[in-house]
């Protein structure tokens, strides 16, 4: 859990209850990833955050612990509408070592999760987080405000509590704070591709690698929203007959955003390769498609990322399709000349997750974008989509979209999307 938690005064060793903890030891590292307490300093000013002050207190600790136990007790007793009673729900106690690690990461002032928060008692440590700001003189509400966001505000995203209680599904990160979810075992047989390990198992969360330095994640709520909207708007346009020479589509799905697909795309983007990874499987999709783009400049500003690459995937590839009618009925590939375009409009694909990074590569300010698609398109000799009046042959479980009238949407597609992508891998150790 995210906390508003106490300061420790040492970078590598912390004296807690009379015991020095070697945070840089192999036991407290996560494979090749060092522990947060080993990697990071006790910051007071960092990047765009100044005057960092610890506001954790006996009051905030007591309040956070009580809210957790009261909510767990309420749910376990059947007091949360539609949720089944719990026969084995544990009472929670407070742990100062967990707090120390949470505080060290909080003081880095990042809007993301740390990757190795292991402690002597627990190999796998979950995490919830919250950030709020105001231009007023007073600070926003901390502990109480974030707990409401983690519980009441996430309940609306759980359509079938019974189902996820029996088999936790993740919900694309929409209720990970509420569930304080499970870690995904990326090195498992199920998420490997034969003898090929998953990207999330094989590769680290790099900051510098080969000829790429200062790798920074530039993915944001804005880039996610923009990329999703561009995909759906283009699919809607094509399905409605708005792309010259292309037939209308009768069964084109509306796409929704998936944070787990984004996680895998980001891990590969941070390897700074000008190629595709070979095993990007996720729990929901065995076969995952991918589009990619890289652009660099010697100017001070980074090139346009999301918007620029989408134009390249669509408008710039249209010229390579001589006979749209033919490839819609039987996808031929075109020697890869329009693979990006075909994946963008593949009718069966209904989820996307995209990552954008900025890096300094070979003296160029470089932006790299990867989008992962579930399920994958671009199957040779298969239909790209069925020709016909828009949304006239919607797949089972979908109907004509309210937002995009030429597309087919599931009930969840028309709901407000969650673009925060917090804790999508469940907070466990990923190496």
UniProtKB/TrEMBL annotation:
<dbReference type="GO" id="GO:0005576">
    <property type="term" value="C:extracellular region"/>
</dbReference>
<feature type="domain" description="SCP">
    <location>
        <begin position="222"/>
        <end position="381"/>
    </location>
</feature>
<dbReference type="InterPro" id="IPR018244">
    <property type="entry name" value="Allrgn_V5/Tpx1_CS"/>
</dbReference>
<dbReference type="InterPro" id="IPR001283">
    <property type="entry name" value="CRISP-related"/>
</dbReference>
<keyword id="KW-0732">Signal</keyword>
<feature type="domain" description="SCP">
    <location>
        <begin position="59"/>
        <end position="211"/>
    </location>
</feature>
<protein>
    <recommendedName>
        <fullName>SCP domain-containing protein</fullName>
    </recommendedName>
</protein>
<dbReference type="Pfam" id="PF00188">
    <property type="entry name" value="CAP"/>
</dbReference>
<dbReference type="InterPro" id="IPR014044">
    <property type="entry name" value="CAP_dom"/>
</dbReference>
<feature type="signal peptide">
    <location>
        <begin position="1"/>
        <end position="20"/>
    </location>
</feature>
<dbReference type="InterPro" id="IPR035940">
    <property type="entry name" value="CAP_sf"/>
</dbReference>
